[in-house]
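I am still getting used to backbone structure tokens and would like to learn alongside you. Label the sequence line and the structure token line clearly, so we can match residues to local backbone shapes. Would you write everything just below, so we can both look at the same thing?
***
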Amino acid sequence: MNKVLLTGANGFLGKHLYSHFVADGFEVKTLSRTGDNIDYRIDIADSAAWDQLDFEPEIIINCAAILPGGNAGDENYVRSLFNTNCLGAYNLCKWVDKTISVKYILNVSSLSVIGKPWPIPLKEDSSAYPSGPHALYSLSKLNQEVLINSFQFSHPVKFAHARLSALFGPNMAWIGIMCSLIDKALKQEPITLSKGTKVSADFIYVTDVCRHFTTLVKKEAEGVINIASGEEVYLSDLAKFILNASGNKLDKLTNIETAGDYNRAVIDISKLKYLEPTFKNTDFVAALQTTIKYRQTSEH
């Protein structure tokens, strides 16, 4: 199988996946509601728009998504979340049902479908109940998984849900704790953390995700698969890495330890390592330096 339809191709991950899969010899057609040089300009939430497709792929990689960061009190944002992430997935399944060439779907999901604090270690079968500030986004991604799981295809279709950890790299959507700390460091502003030695994250570099996705597609992996680095980074250590990489002194960092439990990201990636025996990720500090350099030289 080498014909791929890539949805959400104009996004951060989508652009990297396109370049990676083309370089690996796949024939890739792109689908997005925005962007230049897109093969199919389609909003996946529009069921009628799918009739425009005249491509017969064997593989679909679904990156189309509305990301967290919007206002949960904004009706338009909430509608866009569920239109794209849920209704869009349903429309994709309906199109696949009519397109017998499709044999495999790799759906890009998120580890945030598991409510925090996460169990240690976080496995694929952990009970899902989204919570926290981005609960609506997380719920829409969980709903997306359930929709695909429950769809009754009329021909054999394998599928996997790749639950991403904290994705980062040049050109990423500039939101989240890493981005905030980088901006403060570049502006030489003091950094104050709350519970920096109790809260951790698992950051995974975008080129590593592309490599892992290639493995999943080639092996037609099925089910839920955690896509993470397997490395736990406490926020206090992240801030120190960023300060060092940006030429700042560590005395700009203040960590305030308050009462409360640990909130850790200890991700079980044994399933991913089984699928990819040569598993290896980019050195975190080197990837972080590349991201900081991009931010320094960008127009932002």
In short: The chain has one domain: 3-297.
